[in-house]
Every structure is written in C-alpha cells, then in structure tokens.
Design a protein that fits this description.
about 30% helix, about 25% strand, alpha+beta, two-stranded antiparallel sheet, single chain
C-alpha cells in the first residue's frame, strides 16, 4: 500500500468512520478537555489509551477550537495509583470529571456523549476524502 493511500485511509478514519465521536461539543459550555492516564496499560488504563487513540482525533477534527490536553504518566509500578480521568472545563474551571479506569474505549465515549452537551454532525456534513 502506498504512503498516499495509507494517509487517505488514516484521514478518513478520523473524519468519517469513527461515528460515535462525530459531534460538536457546546463551545459556550466547554473550553477544554483534559485526559490523564498512564503510558502502560496496567491498573485499568487500557480503555483510556484506546479512547485517546481511537476517538479523540475525531473529536478534535470536528471541534477544532476545543483545547485538548493529554497527560500520559510514566509509571512502571503496578501498585502505585495514577489518575485515569477525563475532565471538561469551562471558563472558570472543571465542570465534569469522568473516571475512565477499567472502562473500554466505547464505554468512555458513550459516557462523554451522555454527560456533555453536544450536537451530532449531520450525515451530509461528514467529510470523506476521496482517493
């Protein structure tokens, strides 16, 4: 597979195939999202890592003015606890915290959709990049 075809496939994954994350978060309510999780998967952080890789690029694509901060903590200890959370902020500070520990990526995305005010992107506005 050529480099161009791989890039097109990657861009289409971000823009058109990750359906759950094709939403616009209310910009009047949310200025920033902050994710904190550890680099390694142990202690229930695998779902957070997959959420970051699978869903966050699409959220960023359709919310270009939303600031997203990701803090990945290097922790080799299987006994020391590192926060595994997603926080939504407005102008004054945090308005919502979601505990991502021991959740699958899709569960985290569904919780985001349940708890954050958003608008689904109409099918006609989904961007697909031709080959």
């Amino acid at each position: 597979m050529s480099k161009v075809v791989r890039q097109l496939k990657f861009l289409n994954k971000i823009s058109s195939t990750t359906r759950e994350a094709q939403v616009v978060l209310n910009p009047e309510k949310y200025q920033r999202l902050a994710l904190t999780f550890q680099v390694k998967n142990h202690n229930g952080h695998m779902g957070a890592r997959k959420f970051w890789r699978e869903y966050l690029p699409t959220l960023q694509f359709y919310n270009p003015n939303l600031r997203i901060d990701v803090t990945r903590v290097k922790n080799d200890s299987k006994t020391t606890s590192v926060p595994c959370k997603l926080e939504a902020y407005d102008k004054s500070g945090p308005v919502l915290e979601i505990d991502m520990r021991d959740q699958q990526a899709l569960e985290i995305m569904n919780t985001v959709l349940q708890k954050l005010d958003h608008t689904k992107i109409p099918e006609s506005d989904i961007i697909t990049i031709g080959q």
